[in-house]
Amino acid sequence: MQLSPRDLARHIDHTLLKADATADQIRTLCAEAREHEFWSVCVNGSHVALASSLLEDTDIKVAAVVGFPLGASGPDVKRFETECAIDLGAQEIDLVIAIGALKDGNHRAVLRELRDVVEAADGVPVKVILETCLLTLEEKKTACSLVVESGAKFVKTSTGFSTGGATLDDVRLMREIVGPGFGVKASGGIRDTATALAMIEAGATRLGTSAGVAIVRGFAAAPGSY
Questions:
Q1: Could you check whether the bond before residue 125 is cis, i.e. omega within 30 degrees of 0?
Q2: Does the residue 142 lie in any domain?
Q3: Structural domain range at position 65
Q4: In a 3-state reduction of DSSP, which class is residue 23?
Q5: How many distinct structural domains can be found in the chain?
Q6: Residues 15, 187: Cα–Cα separation, whole Å
Q7: Is the dihedral of CA 141, 142, 148, 151 positive or negative?
Q8: Residues 3-28: pLDDT tens digits?
Q9: Would you say residue 226 lies in a domain?
Q10: Within a domain: residue 135?
Q11: Residue 1: its pLDDT value, please?
Q12: Contact 99, 140 (CB under 8 A)
């Protein structure tokens, strides 16, 4: 795997989703994204308009989370939240799957909700967060298949707000199920260069992390170490 620091940066959704995130912190997030040329910033809906205004003259995307972090809001709420985020400037949507419905085996409801959000996104890429730490192996496989069927563009491991984050085994499994051309986003607990590169090697095409600056700087400082 041959990557430049910029190649690595373009895998990263530079993320700030804490409940106490301030406008000044969002400004810093966007300034860092500009400096390092990250693929996107990923923020809560309340910060989409600010992030969009700060990045409007760049090719850096603004991703908004929907149904975050529990995935337990109703389908109509998720649809409306998606529409609002896009109206404010979101260019990608990170949606938490209906975890309870998935575990109940109510796959029809899960698929219907996913399709509703994809429709509401109206061509904006949707990444679906599975929260893999809460799922069995079979539930992970089923979830990946439903996401592909729904018309979404990515499967994503985790919110980073539950009992665990991304693992190499989960990334490999997701890549195996969705195939070579589908997006796989590893998120949750990716804090250093070695872990980031290992996730890409395992099959991730995108990384969600709040440590993007440290990851890219670590790679640039010692590229021969990886």
A1: no
A2: yes
A3: 5-221
A4: helix
A5: 1
A6: 10
A7: negative
A8: 999 999 999 999 999 999 999 999 99
A9: no
A10: yes
A11: 62
A12: no
Question: What is the pLDDT averaged over residues 120-130?
Answer: 98
Backbone angles phi, psi at 48, to 5 degrees: -65, -45
What CA dihedral angle connects 4, 207, 108 and 134, to 10 degrees? 140
Q: Are strands 40-43 and 12-16 parallel, antiparallel or unpaired?
A: parallel
Q: pLDDT (tens digit, 9 = 90+) per residue, 184-195?
A: 999 999 999 999
Torsion 166-171-173-177 (CA) sign? positive
Q: List the structure tokens of 212.
A: 């993007």
Alpha helices in the chain (DSSP H): 5-9, 23-36, 48-54, 75-87, 99-103, 107-121, 137-150, 168-178, 193-202, 212-221
Report the catalytic residues. 94, 156, 185
Taking 3-state DSSP, the helix, strand and coil percentages for the chain, each rounded to the nearest 5, stand at 50, 15, 35
Handedness of CA 215, 217, 153, 94 (dihedral sign): positive
Q: Which residue has the tokens 């995935």?
A: 71
Rounded to a whole number of angstroms, the distance between the first and last alpha carbons of the chain is 9
Which CATH number goes with the domain that contains 81? 3.20.20.70
Q: Please return the burial class of 20, using the count of CB atoms within 10 Å of its CB with bins 0-12, 13-18 and 19+.
A: exposed
Strand partners, 209: 14
Q: Is the pLDDT of residue 224 over 80?
A: no
Determine the Cα–Cα distance for residues 185 and 164; give it in Å rounded to an integer.
15
